[in-house]
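Researcher: Good morning. I'm working through a list of sequences from a screen, and I'd like to move beyond sequence-only analysis. For each chain I'm collecting a predicted structure so we can compare shapes side by side. This is the next one on the list. No need for commentary yet; just the structure.
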Amino acid sequence: MSVFEAPRKHVKGRKLARVVICNSVAQSVIEAVRGQHKDFVFVYRRERVKNTDQAPKMPYRPIETMNNTAWQNARKAAGLGDLHVHDLRHTVGMRLRVAGVAEGTISDILWHSTKTMTMTQHYSVAQIVELHQALDKVKDDAGRWNKSLATLRREQEATLRELTPPEVPQVKVA
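Model: Good morning. Structure tokens for this chain:
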């Protein structure tokens, strides 16, 4: 398992440093690039196009922005159209929800400072399959007795009205 600290200067709002915990897929990506630079994980260098048998002209440098030319070129090459790095955050939120992960945990993973950002479903909207499964749960009532408390109260009040004899007017004797 890999755990990293994102320094405060690289965090939105710059209030606190954040902890990044990697799953096994992210861990394998990190292991594949580990050691290219002494301080940074994600780095780049311009590779030789000619004279590829010679050492590269430049050392590895840290990637300083997410929406760089490399991202834009990779996105176009993969046919991903108008995909943005931030869209991946929404994908993670939705996948975590579908996997049944608790809202609080999703909120922590996405670094939401307020839990309502996750709970308003901005990052974890319900998927069609999830909605279909929810509706399928009520398709077969099988005659089960299932009344709300309000319905029971109304029925009880109606029964009491039927059982209670009407009041007989009292005649005052003068």
